[in-house]
Design goal:
single chain, 681 residues, alpha/beta, Rossmann fold, Dimethylsulfoxide Reductase, domain 2, Barwin-like endoglucanases, 3 domains, 7-stranded mixed sheet, 6-stranded mixed sheet, globular, binds iron/sulfur cluster
């Protein structure tokens, strides 16, 4: 039996077929349609390997005498219900926080936010998009009125120039990197801005290896050059935008020489790259977490929007501002309103009319105050937050400053976690619920380019595990609010009714092919390119932003800039990929990339263990001496719990998007002779 579905890893959303024999998924093969065009990366090819792994959670567990004992669903859900209600009655609904998941389906995210707002009466719901693309939503909403990728994956190949900034596309979105490489081979130019010499450098016309956290200075210098040379699109600026004169004034001081001093990039290279971008008929900007995970994340994003508008690169094939979403359903979890300030469909919780629409359908009054974001929830554990419900997330691997996160989660009166596998976070839970994997349930994911696709149940859930949509519905019923859904298709019917951009979406239509939102009614074909004739907000807005340095910069004691990221072979906290034999055979150990000059000064040899310390924590891991990083910059992949990079990272937040600054913090490195025994991680 072959079951068509969607890859559970990244936001590209490649389609694959699960090959089932004797009730188990034995193999994955690519489908010839969809974003992957018949190809998968190594993670997609291995997507079945964790499904039947012996570590899977198979029964609900409750904490007893310092350990966990197995229990039945009824008892576990009753305990959760009682604990959440106790917190609500004693301290109010806002004493409960819920963490949704960008790995879960749209339907599950929709139900968890509905549960938060109807049953608990709080907007304290967030999802891990807070850690990757919250600044994209805030930034692009300000500039364009819509926080999503403007164009489609397919039309990247139409671009004359592709500007990739802060995206290690070959490792994080390999099948989009394939399109970029195809375009370059057909004659497109690639401008790459990245602190590391990543694989795409081999295809780049220009590589701008800027210091992490200096993006605004670089982009403002691009615009300085473009305006100085008269290369801006005056017609587009006049007819489609507002705020140009303020922008012109601000970028006047960002000469390439000025930006060179901040970014560490040669002024001539900055100038050349700006001219290549501006002279293209169609230029596409692609970015990811190298742009967003900063205390200036929103400013970085609006700078890119400014650049695109300045050259009229919006609303046409081969153009656009294109954030590549990390996890498989980051786009969808935000679309579904698993956010503290937005109801489903990006309608503000403060919007009375929007609330009324949902209140009439749900039969309950919705809370109106903005809820806490993910990092704010963690900081309030034991304070305003007494109880927490986490669906499919592992903040004890993926949040910054893990020592702090652990201390905070331990202050909660009650923590429930639904998960596939035991994790660092389930270790501190009071109740653990076994959740079904992507192969064991129906639903939809929304890929990075707003592409809504069906996932399909191929096998029965292992043990007693259940899909999260069923878990939430049962919990809600026990707590006195009926969610009478018989299938995820029913949930999508309600979403289509209440969320205008999903208005024409149904399982019947999705079974014939993907739909890209906005898809406003059953006859609407979906939308490949946004802002074609007008921006969602009317006119595009130039938002002027000055360069501000990262929250933490190197000093005498901590002289290196640490930047973190993902590898091709692993995903996020490694919960799934580190249970895949193919992937762990490739890489299964943390390492730190150090430039040869720095290694030489510290007398560190390739492969030896070093201790890396920041103001927040320390880890011990292997040194990898490489020219991929420039002098003064080091890189650590964040997948490995034994040496989790997030023990070091800084939890300083962007003031608007509240995204932490994962991409820059100051560290020191000690060679083996400086320490006698390995520290605790
Ligand atoms: Fe899966 Fe992304 Fe790889 Fe495609 S590119 S197979 S969606 S991990």
């Amino acid at each position: 039996m072959k079951i068509p579905t969607v890859c559970p890893y990244c936001g590209v959303g490649c389609l694959l077929s699960l090959q089932v024999l004797d009730g188990k998924v034995k193999k994955v093969t690519p489908l010839n349609i969809g974003p992957g065009e018949g190809k998968l990366c190594i993670k997609g090819w291995s997507a079945h390997e964790f499904i039947h792994h012996p570590d899977r959670l198979t029964k609900p567990l409750i904490r007893k005498n310092g350990g966990f004992i197995e229990t039945g669903w009824r008892k576990a859900l009753t305990l959760i219900s009682r604990s959440l209600l106790e917190a609500k009655e004693e301290y109010g609904g806002n004493s409960v926080a819920l963490l949704s998941s960008s790995k879960s389906t749209n339907e599950e995210n929709y139900l968890l936010q509905k549960f938060a707002r109807t049953v608990i009466g709080t907007n304290n719901i967030d999802n891990c998009a807070r850690l990757c693309h919250a600044s994209t939503i805030e930034g692009l909403m300000k500039s364009f009125g819509s926080g999503a990728m403007t164009n489609s994956q397919e039309d990247i190949e139409d671009a004359d120039v592709i500007f990739v900034i802060g995206s290690n596309t070959s490792e994080q979105h390999p099948l989009i990197a394939r399109r970029i490489i195809k375009a370059v081979k057909k004659g497109s130019s690639l401008i790459l801005a990245d602190p590391r010499s990543i694989d795409l450098k081999a295809y780049a016309t220009i590589h701008l290896n800027l210091y992490p956290g200096t993006d605004v200075a670089l982009i403002n210098a691009f615009m300085n050059v473009i305006i100085f040379e008269g290369l801006q699109d005056t017609h587009f600026i006049k007819s489609r935008t507002e705020g140009f004169h303020e922008l012109e004034k601000l970028v006047a001081k960002y000469t390439p020489e000025y930006a060179a001093r901040i970014t560490g990039v040669d002024a001539k290279l900055i100038s050349n790259a700006a001219k290549i971008y501006a002279k293209a008929d169609k230029a596409s900007i692609i970015f990811s977490m190298g742009i967003t995970q900063h205390t200036t994340g929103v400013n970085n994003v609006v700078s890119l929007a400014n650049l695109a508008m300045l050259c009229g690169n919006i609303g046409r094939p081969g153009t656009g501002v294109n954030p590549l979403r990390g996890q498989n359903n980051v786009q969808g979890s935000c679309d579904m309103g698993a956010l503290p300030d937005f109801l489903p469909g990006y309608r503000r919780v403060s919007d009375v009319e929007a609330r009324k629409t949902f209140e009439e359908r749900w039969g309950v009054k919705c809370p109106d105050g903005r809820g806490l974001t993910l990092i704010e929830m963690i900081n309030e554990c034991g304070g305003k937050i007494k109880a927490m419900y986490i669906m499919g997330e592992n903040p004890l691997m993926t949040d910054p400053d893990l020592n702090h996160v652990k201390k905070q989660l331990e202050k909660l009166d009650f923590l429930a976690v639904s998960e596939l596998f035991p994790s660092e976070t389930t270790e501190v839970a009071d109740v653990i619920l076994p959740a079904a994997s992507f192969a064991e349930k129906d639903g939809t994911y929304t890929a990075t380019d707003r592409r809504i696709q069906r996932i399909r149940k191929a096998v029965e859930p292992v043990g007693e595990s259940q899909p999260d949509w069923m878990i939430i519905s049962q919990l809600s019923k026990i707590m006195g609010y009926l969610m009478p859904y018989t299938s995820p298709a029913n949930v999508m019917e309600e979403i289509a009714e209440l969320v205008p951009i999903y208005g024409g979406v149904s399982y019947e239509r999705l079974d014939k092919g993907a739909l890209k939102w906005p898809c406003i009614d059953e006859n609407h074909p979906g939308t490949s390119i946004l802002h074609v004739e007008r921006f969602t907000r009317g006119r595009g807005r130039f938002v002027t932003v000055d360069y501000n340095p990262p929250s933490e910069v190197p000093d005498e004691e901590y002289p290196f800039i640490l930047t973190t990221g993902r590898l091709l072979f692993h995903w996020h906290g490694g919960t799934m990929t580190r249970r895949s034999k193919t992937l762990i055979d490739q890489v299964n150990e943390a390492y730190i990339e150090i430039n040869p000059s720095d290694a030489n000064l510290l007398r560190i040899f390739d492969g030896e263990k070093v201790k890396v310390k920041s103001k927040r924590g320390e880890i011990t891991l292997k040194a990898s001496i490489t020219e991929r990083v420039k002098e003064g910059v080091v890189f650590i992949p964040f997948h490995f719990a034994e040496a989790a990079a997030n023990h070091l990272t800084n939890s300083a937040l962007d003031p608007e998007a509240k995204i932490p600054e994962f991409k820059v913090c100051a560290v020191k490195i000690e060679k083996p002779s400086d320490f006698e025994s390995f520290p605790k991680t």
